[in-house]
Automatic annotation (TrEMBL):
The keyword Nucleus does not apply. Belongs to the flagella basal body rod proteins family. GO terms for biological process: bacterial-type flagellum-dependent cell motility. This is Flagellar basal-body rod protein FlgC. It comes from Sphingobium algorifonticola. Residues 10-38 form the Flagellar basal body rod protein N-terminal domain. The gene is flgC. InterPro entries: Flag_bb_rod_N, Flg_bb/hook_C_dom, FlgC. Keywords: Bacterial flagellum, Cell projection, Cilium, Flagellum. Transmembrane segments: none annotated. Residues 97-132 form the Flagellar basal-body/hook protein C-terminal domain. Its main location: other. It is found in: Bacterial flagellum basal body.
Amino acid sequence: MAGDPMNIFDIAGRAMSAQLVRLNATASNMANAGNVTGSEKSAYRAIRPVFQSVTEKPGVSTVTVDRVVTTDAKPVKRHDPNHPLADANGDVFEAAVDSSAELVDMLESARMYQNNVQVLQTAKSLMLETIRIGK
């Protein structure tokens, strides 16, 4: 299929796949929000997919996930000498995840996914109507 031209189903399907990766990354970030560790180096940092446009010709374009990167956000250092994971100074490091931003990203990616589902449903309906008219 590498030589076949992209159609609306390929375009929307690839976009849905990319948004699914984005949703999975957000879910991972949310799952790790609030986690603490005893060192800054081992603290969880949020991950983000990097999208790349795939253009076949003008007007025919979609998206793919190029890679998933770790953000450079710094973990939050908190003094808690009674925590079992505290370092020698009594500090723990909380995951570098902004829960509010993650919720916004989750809603946005879910909406984008939903939009592409609607594109597929509309295309299917139009094709079926065209076939019905042709009979």
